[in-house]
Design goal:
- By secondary structure, the chain is an alpha+beta fold.
- It is built from 10 helices and 16 strands.
- The strands form 4 sheets. The protein has a 6-stranded antiparallel sheet, with helices on one face.
- A hairpin with a 4-residue loop joins strand 14 (about 455-460) and strand 15.
- Helix 3 (about 55-70) packs across helix 4 (about 135-145) and helix 9 (about 370-390) packs antiparallel against helix 10.
Length: about 500
């Protein structure tokens, strides 16, 4: 069935500009047909009830005419919506689904029976609603009650003379769908139509959703992808290839510049040793160091994504604790807050007193990624905090089921609000002073690494200092993480 369905879909135009109008027209026509059918069914039933309700006088005339006729032969005629057959006796036995009645019309009592093709759903509608009722009102009520059964019926009246009237109304007393059933069937067909139209519309949007996903351009857009989606995907691949070529060209250019600069820089460094003035020699060496740092930092920024490193499954808490312990070993003021630490007091006994116990957990901060690059990113952020704030507070916490959040709080002067958006640009520094040297690439490199792990950096001024928040994905950024994950445990 699925193969036939897809074969039929392949006969549709391949262009989205043709598929969309066809889908809109098909949905409009389908909704119009279902609505028209439902309204028509309800109208026909309502019209039949109205005709039956106003046919009491006609039925009364039929009964009076049958009473006055004395001809023994079979008489058949049609009047109004009714077909009448008058015979000397019953032409055939009544069906098993017959309901006997006694009709009191203008003081006369008539035996009657109503034959149905199936068991009536509303037999109480056939009974008289009032004890004192005119013949016309009673027959109108009876005709309407028969019509409400929504099935073919025949009214049989036994006249006092022994003759029998068999009355049918093909246009009023006939098989049809009831009001509730008509609405339910209409809704069911409409739901079935939606179950077909919605997947078709989703299929039209599916290729574009895959194109909008973060990461590489998908190779397969599906069997029924429109020509526009295929062309866009091809265009995106070409742009990505062109961008990659441009990036490679820039990287190779900077690498060549770095190689070419290192040789004269080395010669200049050797020649500075010939300078007799220590102050001049120191300034020359400082300038040469800055030139080397700029070249190396620019190379790192452009090649950070291409640096080879396998993907592992590790604890972000353990990585940060190891990094912060390295800072503490050299006397740096870095504090770490792990929200998974639980302070407990051990139970005292006659053999030992109660002691303070800290239980650490890291299961909630497990992620996949490249730990060496993340270590470098957080090291740059902590160095930046120590440079401007003299101390740093690091905190890690789960932000959602798929993201982790690391905040680094320094206690420096902060950043002007209008400069926050510029902080991730290369060679931009928050505060420049003679005592704090740097080239303004640390945050840019950290941002590249965080984005490589499906996250981002954000800045917020605190009182005092600045809070840098890094958000990373637990799965390492999804498509961006090409190597398969390994466990380091």
């Amino acid at each position: 069935m699925t193969a036939v369905f897809y074969r039929l879909l392949h006969t549709l135009p391949a262009s989205l500009s043709q598929r969309l109008p066809m889908l809109v027209v098909a949905a409009y026509l389908f909704g119009t047909v279902i609505t028209a059918w439902t309204v028509q069914s309800l109208y026909q039933r309502s019209n039949a009830l109205a005709v039956a309700e106003t046919s009491g006088e006609i039925l009364h005339q039929i009964i009076r005419r049958g009473t006055l006729l004395e001809e023994p032969d079979v008489i058949e005629y049609r009047t109004g919506p009714f077909e009448v057959r008058q015979t000397e006796g019953l032409p055939r036995a009544l069906s098993a689904q017959s309901i006997p009645l006694i009709l009191e019309l203008d003081g006369d009592r008539y035996r009657a029976a109503i034959s149905f093709s199936a068991r009536p759903q509303l037999p109480e509608a056939l009974r008289a609603s009032q004890r004192d009722q005119s013949a016309t009102a009673r027959l109108s009520e009876l005709a309407r009650g028969i019509a409400r059964q929504d099935q073919s019926a025949q009214l049989t009246i036994f006249l006092p003379s022994g003759e029998v009237l068999s009355i049918k109304a093909p246009s009023v007393w006939r098989d049809r769908l009831g009001q509730t059933r008509s609405v339910l069937i209409g809704l069911a067909i409409f739901a079935i139509g939606l179950s077909v139209i919605i997947p078709l519309s989703t299929n039209l949007a599916g290729p574009f959703q895959r194109l909008a996903e973060r990461g590489r351009t998908p190779e397969n857009l599906g069997e029924l992808a429109s020509t526009e989606a295929v062309l866009i995907a091809d265009r995106m691949r070409r742009l990505n290839e062109r961008f990659q070529l441009e990036q490679d060209r820039k990287t190779r250019g900077l690498a060549a510049i770095s190689h070419d600069l290192r040789t004269p820089a080395t010669r200049m460094r050797l020649r500075t040793e010939l300078l007799e003035d220590d102050a001049v020699r120191g300034r020359f060496e400082a300038d040469l160091d800055e030139i080397t740092n700029i070249v190396d930092g620019a190379l790192d920024l452009l090649s950070i994504r291409e640096l080879p490193e396998e993907t592992y499954r590790f604890s972000l808490v353990a990585l940060l604790e190891s990094l912060i312990n390295d800072y503490r070993d050299v006397g740096k003021r870095v504090n770490f807050t792990n929200p998974e630490e639980i302070d407990l007091n051990s139970a005292s006994s006659i053999f030992a007193t109660s002691e303070h116990v800290v239980v650490k957990g890291g299961a909630e901060c497990i992620m996949e990624g490249q730990p060496d690059k993340l270590r470098r990113a957080f090291s740059n952020l902590i160095d930046n905090a120590l440079k401007y704030g003299d101390r740093a507070c690091v905190e890690v916490r789960p932000k959602s089921t798929n993201t982790l959040e690391v905040s680094i709080h320094d206690f420096g002067p902060g950043i002007e609000p209008d400069q926050i958006d510029r902080m991730l640009l290369p060679f931009v520094r928050g505060h420049v002073s003679q005592t704090q040297r740097g080239i303004g690439l640390g945050l840019s490199i950290a941002s590249e690494i965080i984005e490589l792990h499906g996250g981002s950096l954000s800045f917020a001024n605190a009182d005092p200092g600045l809070i840098v928040t890094a958000t990373v994905s637990r799965d390492g950024g999804g498509p961006a993480s090409s190597p398969p994950a390994r466990s380091d445990r």
